[in-house]
Design a protein that fits this description.
Layout: H1 2-6, H2 8-14, H3 19-23, H4 26-33, E1 46-50, H5 57-69, E2 74-77, E3 90-96, H6 102-114, E4 118-122, H7 125-133, E5 137-140, H8 151-164, H9 170-188, H10 198-206, E6 210-216, H11 220-232, E7 239-243, H12 250-256, E8 263-270, H13 276-290, E9 296-300, H14 305-327, H15 335-344
Parallel strand pairs: 1-2, 1-3, 3-4, 4-5, 6-7, 6-8, 8-9
């Protein structure tokens, strides 16, 4: 199996739709989207980011950052309507890569009814047409990606928006550590052998398992991303959680419940950060080891929770990719989602 992961010809044959090329553009997507420097005359007391699926992932990262770096409460809504409290003091950022997401279009109508200031991030579609016709602020990102593979464009655009209205310097903070993301990318590529490629090693350990991915609360988005990417790219069941919450409930299932050797805990462990959850994670890993629970520990670099989260997201993306290759499935198609949408037409 290892030879398969190191064999670019094998990867190309299985990855017939070209997911690898889209994944490797993540740092360059951020660089491009963060190059926009405009100021918006918007006064907001709170923020709502609306989106579904891969389009909402950037909102998760943004909300975690805002919780630690802004006085503006920030919420991610994966639904059809906004919270009742959203009003003219709420900045609404709607993210729909395709521009045709039914739920996001419904949130657009809700925001218009409430008089919320709004910015739309999209590559086109009906949402862009309506927003431009009604004179709203639209950030257009490049088309041609799978929505989940356009995270760099979507996240970078959202970061620029909150900075442009003076709520938080997120875009500037990401720009500062872009070189570290470029360096990490080189270690994760197929050309990087197992000895220095953590994604390949982890994928081999997760093959034929059901991963449960955990991260500290300030970077929960990284665990969520692992879950959704393994779901979609690898076509595997995967679940996620956060520390310290899992140590108040799920730990009982792991240690005191019936054992299933296919279940595999994965701990996303930042090497810095200084939050209590790190001590809890280390203690949990030791406890799992004492009870002979095979635990995958992914060490994440980064001088801040945001940097560690993006390192974790990149690592998880490649783990999901290599799992797809090991399973012999094209990472790109998601036939069950397509089938469900077909039933809703």
């Amino acid at each position: 199996m290892l030879a398969q992961l190191d064999d670019l010809a094998s990867l190309t044959r299985i990855d017939a739709s070209g997911m690898l090329d889209q994944m490797t553009s993540f740092p360059s997507q951020l660089t491009s989207s963060l190059s926009v420097d405009i100021r918006r005359d918007v006064e907001a007391e709170n923020v709502v980011v609306g989106g579904l699926g891969g389009s909402a992932m950037g909102g998760d990262v943004l909300a975690e950052y805002m919780a630690m770096n802004s006085s503006a409460p920030t919420f991610v809504v994966r639904d059809t309507t906004l919270p009742r409290w959203a009003d003219e003091r709420t900045l609404v950022i709607l993210i729909s890569y395709s521009g045709n997401t039914r739920e996001t279009a419904s949130m657009y109508a809700s925001a218009r009814e409430r008089g919320c200031p709004m910015v739309i991030i999209t590559s086109g579609g009906k949402l862009m047409d309506v927003a431009e016709r009604e004179g709203l602020d639209v950030v257009k990102v490049p088309p041609g990606y799978q929505p989940r593979a356009a995270l760099g464009h979507l996240l970078g655009s959202a970061a620029c928006i909150v900075e442009s209205v003076g709520l938080a310097p997120m875009a500037s903070d990401i720009r500062a550590f872009l070189p570290s993301l470029e360096t990490l990318m080189q270690d994760l590529l197929p050309s990087s052998p197992q000895a220095r490629n953590a994604a390949k090693r982890i994928a081999l350990r997760l093959l034929d398992t059901v991963p449960f991915v955990y991260a500290p609360r300030p970077m929960r988005s990284a665990a969520t991303r692992w879950q959704t990417q393994i779901n979609e790219n690898s076509k595997m069941l995967c679940l996620s959680g956060e520390v310290p919450e899992m140590d108040h409930n799920q730990i009982v299932g792991w240690i005191d419940g019936a054992r299933d050797g296919r279940n595999r805990p994965v701990m996303l462990l930042p090497r810095s950060g200084g939050y209590m959850a790190l001590d809890l994670m280390r203690a949990t890993i030791e406890l799992f080891d004492d009870h002979d629970i095979d635990t995958v520990v992914a060490d994440l670099e980064g001088a801040s929770p945001l940097e560690s989260a993006l390192h974790g997201i990149m690592l998880g993306d490649f783990v999901s990719y290599y799992l797809a290759i090991l399973r012999g499935v094209d990472p790109t198609p998601v036939p069950s989602i397509k089938e469900l949408k077909g039933r809703l037409v």
